[in-house]
Predict the 3D structure of the following.
Amino acid sequence: MPGNTFGKIFKITTFGESHGRGVGVVIDGCPSGIKISEKDIQAELDRRRPGQSQITTERKEEDQIKIFSGVFQGSTTGTPIMMIVENKDQRSSDYNNLKNLYRPSHADFTYEKKYGIRDFSGGGRASARETLARVAAGAIAKKYLREKLKIEILAYVEQIGNIKTDIDFNKITKKDIESNIVRCPDKKEAKKMIDFVNKLKKEGDSVGGVIRGVIKNAPIGLGEPVFDRLNADLGKSMLSINAVKGFDIGSGFEGIGMLGSEHNDQFFIDKNGKVKTKTNFSGGTQGGISNGENIYFRVAFKPVATISKEQLTVDKNGKVVKFKASGRHDPCVLPRAVPIVEAMAAITLMDHWLRKIVGDR
Amino acid sequence: MPGNTFGKIFKITTFGESHGRGVGVVIDGCPSGIKISEKDIQAELDRRRPGQSQITTERKEEDQIKIFSGVFQGSTTGTPIMMIVENKDQRSSDYNNLKNLYRPSHADFTYEKKYGIRDFSGGGRASARETLARVAAGAIAKKYLREKLKIEILAYVEQIGNIKTDIDFNKITKKDIESNIVRCPDKKEAKKMIDFVNKLKKEGDSVGGVIRGVIKNAPIGLGEPVFDRLNADLGKSMLSINAVKGFDIGSGFEGIGMLGSEHNDQFFIDKNGKVKTKTNFSGGTQGGISNGENIYFRVAFKPVATISKEQLTVDKNGKVVKFKASGRHDPCVLPRAVPIVEAMAAITLMDHWLRKIVGDR
Amino acid sequence: MPGNTFGKIFKITTFGESHGRGVGVVIDGCPSGIKISEKDIQAELDRRRPGQSQITTERKEEDQIKIFSGVFQGSTTGTPIMMIVENKDQRSSDYNNLKNLYRPSHADFTYEKKYGIRDFSGGGRASARETLARVAAGAIAKKYLREKLKIEILAYVEQIGNIKTDIDFNKITKKDIESNIVRCPDKKEAKKMIDFVNKLKKEGDSVGGVIRGVIKNAPIGLGEPVFDRLNADLGKSMLSINAVKGFDIGSGFEGIGMLGSEHNDQFFIDKNGKVKTKTNFSGGTQGGISNGENIYFRVAFKPVATISKEQLTVDKNGKVVKFKASGRHDPCVLPRAVPIVEAMAAITLMDHWLRKIVGDR
Amino acid sequence: MPGNTFGKIFKITTFGESHGRGVGVVIDGCPSGIKISEKDIQAELDRRRPGQSQITTERKEEDQIKIFSGVFQGSTTGTPIMMIVENKDQRSSDYNNLKNLYRPSHADFTYEKKYGIRDFSGGGRASARETLARVAAGAIAKKYLREKLKIEILAYVEQIGNIKTDIDFNKITKKDIESNIVRCPDKKEAKKMIDFVNKLKKEGDSVGGVIRGVIKNAPIGLGEPVFDRLNADLGKSMLSINAVKGFDIGSGFEGIGMLGSEHNDQFFIDKNGKVKTKTNFSGGTQGGISNGENIYFRVAFKPVATISKEQLTVDKNGKVVKFKASGRHDPCVLPRAVPIVEAMAAITLMDHWLRKIVGDR
């Protein structure tokens, strides 16, 4: 069954494998008249690129984006936009040792049972390399939302292992986030995180964490009751990212101890005559529809499954075998996942913005 | 834009308002030949019914289900199944005082801004009464999954406010869950929860909590990469329930402190020759596809927005007004939300089971 | 698999069987703020009603529509609109003789082979009674298109058997169409048609024909390349009506003998400065998108399968049996199919109008 | 709004423009384990290729297909299959004269009004070059249907202008069709057609015609009531092809003169004990579901809009201008459209086969 499409109007379909010819995306439903260049897209991809810093994998991949269709003389035309990154460094022979075994907490076993066949070179379709296609599509959504609607979409690393910042997400800027290689806007905690990740890198181990997302200036009215609530679609978009195990919005799991009388966001009229809420435990959506307040959410990532430590696992023939990943891998994906979270948020918002134009009245 | 449909093959569309003529559902895509009676459906609805115990709202609603189409001589025929509960106790005049004001943390404000009009009687479409349609559809899915595939779907209250059980979800039975009115299988904690909710009821306040869901015996191979992962669709299904603010699966938000070497679920061969994992931090899905282990997840509910304490809010004309809910309402929705969580899990599993039949090979 | 939904934004799902509890529709995606009453809907249903004239079936069915949800104080609210007609005259015992046999050119055989079970009372879901749900949904679309966009949607009987009118469809009014019971605006040919149908009624035989549809004043830009062309979706909508075997638009099957130099619709500037075409062989769409000219199309209906003449057929056990329909049936469905064709055209246009608002720029 | 996707389970999305970087397709939902090579695809593309004979355009385009993803070691893997043909001979400067004018009966005017921008080089997305993506996707569907289900899908030219064959479509083979360059299996009429097209080529004019499609050995039970009938989806698939203006199935427009007693397909039991029909006016579907008889249909093509004769038209500024197409174009697209019709039929059948597996029981 098809499952490689996200969105109803701004509809993206991704394709490609980590060690095949490349990875790409088709966007169907992008409005015409948006100025787009490969440079715009590349800037976002570079934030996701492997080898960008000492704490990411050392693999060097240039990940050059190519716009294949749907853009004419620098503008989108309303026809499908296809974009592609061709793989340069395929090295699939490296992976012959993976042919018959199931790496722990990877998708090797489930893909093989589901499809009866799997591309065993570097994870194939299950590789996080697929997410570059999302970042490329997200770059267009982000540009449109920013330029046309002044919506700002930010994400940053809030927690790695047990190291956590409690910085106020309402005050963060993109510059703060990009000020260090771990993409945590709290310098002090960022330093600790970097040290921790470097230590794990040496040990060949890995760690997870939390990315915080913030959407500022979203218009009132995004989200479609009752199943396609904005929060439900944001949740799905995040839970579809590799290694994500949890999502919450507003007070989320942390608001459980509160009483209704504390948690309710009372309305007031601000100095501009606008209806606003005093608190924002709802996280910017009520009844599944955006209410004009900041939308904020958390995304929980498990530790990367690929580690250099020796593990026991089984192979196709049911034999127990030893396994130790030999490639160069990220000890912590979160710094590189920041643009992915932003991209999925942008795609979800874009889709709901286009849905809103129609559906309301 | 439409947003009232969930599922791709087992496709449910709900309709109806809390104080209109009634609430119902159309299921399109249900396989033929399933034995179904109104009794089967009613049993699940009764678990969601208001007034079922001292800790729920005292409103008495019978919520009698009627199967309108798609079932012939006791069997589904493959044509759309429409089911309906007609509202008996409409009393919409009670709600005239809500006509012009926006209740805090309700959907009054967002619906009005989105649609320019709203059914102000009791929340209209935004009322949790809509979820009875999901429970009805879920009853059919549950029956099919249980009888045909031996899949068991359970949910229970794990936490209310700060009262929490750490009982092992792998060992819970339906009987344990139904053994008390708060639907927490840990008798000691259940007692505390009931006392706490009763206290809040007197005070006119409310509280949230966590429902744990467990799916046992799911076949390997459910879930479609890359966007329609089983975990992503489960997450969306839960986040579409009223008052839900968070979802996690497997280790979720609680696994963040773990290292990869601790978190990876190592494979082994069990005594029946089956590939199993020693631990199950993945929560039964890897690469978005079920791996045959128990699927377990948490759903975070915020406190009910309707409380009897006086609050400040604003009305349509931008005036600040005092507001105090007069109706009879639940201080804590979780005991009644247990069958809703089970229903959405069943619908999601059913949809992915039918998708699997087609898509794999 | 689900197949009971039509439309992407103005999305209708029909349900119900001819001799079950009733037939109905859910519309998801209808804009809010449209004034709608049961009277508006009923007027269209009455044009489809059995027993409305001497040349239709003599079955008396009142077909009273009930709006169940989605309309509040006379206006649509943006939430799902459910409408229903309850069956009064079920008489399913009449149909026991159909239980085991396959009526020629009916869906008895194919439903039974597909689903393993079928509702044998009066055709069940395969009955043309299902189309009343479409007429109800179409009534809302028609009203919106007429009042908001001044779009006029007309259909009439152009041919029955070999009796055919060549009246100019650009000049027809609704009044002309409704001026006689066969709904052919050419009085002379209408008379012949009525006589012919009456003759067949006596003989217990049936006949097919052609309905012509005309859409005036459609805005430029409806239709989505490349698969969801306006002409392709109109075609699908018509071909989904019971007994329809053909569809063409513009010059259609009759333009085959023309050369390109004759067929091309040359552009000119009219006195209001608008770009128009001199001829309109394209039928109002070019590249799948409406160009502002009249959209016109033909829909071919086969003769009704239900006839009172004795036929040979087979039963479930593979025996050859004699069969003669005993009920009261239409010798020619076309007069009653006119509002169905209009309804499906309106639903298709409405959907594409809502799609256009978003997609263009 | 998106409109570039066809199918629900075997879901194809095409992209690309006639004079951009190329044209391609993503198939999402293709089952795993199908043996596929670029050679298999190329064979079908070569039947659609320009310049293949004296009666097609003289443009030489190699149209080399490249499989980009979804195939591993010669087998489909269940992940998205992306295939692409890169444009070699772009020559877009040739088209600068088209920048400001609207060619008669082309999509220039409607695209520009809809999107506010259009790729004016050679028709851009509206060019029939887009259909090569469909032929590529259809090649996989065809192979699967033939090898796994023994379904044979054929199409041939039945009529060009007023020259028509009445050969029995039940007896045609692929070899008959490919025996001459016009792809009409009736040698005598084929000769006349070729002469006629050659004459028009010299005159710079064009002509339309009818392609007949035949599907043999389709299993019983394909098609989903009530909107996604097999005939409705086949109709839509054909009406989405450039220049198509009509579709009928079974007796279609030609059965209108028949009475029900003549038209009904009486059932009988054949010598193998199978339920068959004596006649097949239904065209292999009843109630929208295949009944095991041959499915046959007609597709009406208008004359190609591009002709070398001088025409009057208007430009963007509202001026009347003379226009004469200078490129090399087909006087009659039908011979090259035969594989397109086959491809769309195969894609539709494949989709409904996969839908059937799920949906029935």
In short: The domain at 5-360 of chain B is CATH 3.60.150.10 (Chorismate synthase, AroC fold). DSSP finds eight helices and 18 strands in chain B. The CA atoms of residues 24 and 84 of chain B lie 4 Å apart.
